[in-house]
Design goal:
Elements (H helix, E strand, L loop, with lengths): L1 E5 L2 H6 L3 E4 L8 H9 L4 H5 L5 E5 L2 E3 L10 E6 L4
Parallel strand pairs: 1-5
Antiparallel strand pairs: 1-2, 3-4, 3-5
Length: 82
């Protein structure tokens, strides 16, 4: 399972500071992950735009096309917090 951490204002907007999820086979990169999370609707959809957040994979900043898998620690940070 991948561990997803949410930081700063995302905690208040999404109601989570972290969660563990099993990524679907179709979620192969950061862009697909953000798309899957946005599909939850509501604040997820409006808060997690690709330009609105930065993502780290195992504590290293990652580009939108970076590969993700179920063994990673993924952090999502508001873009202005970097």
């Amino acid at each position: 399972m991948a561990k997803i951490l949410y930081f700063s204002t995302l905690v208040d907007k999404l109601g989570h500071s972290s969660e563990e999820v099993t990524l679907l086979a179709s979620v192969t990169d950061v862009g697909a992950l953000l798309g899957r999370l946005r599909a939850r609707g509501g604040n997820w959809e409006t808060t997690l735009g690709e330009k609105a957040v930065h993502v780290t994979l195992n504590r290293q900043f990652a580009e939108i096309g970076a590969a993700v898998d179920n063994k990673m620690e993924i952090a999502i940070i508001p873009a202005r917090a970097r």
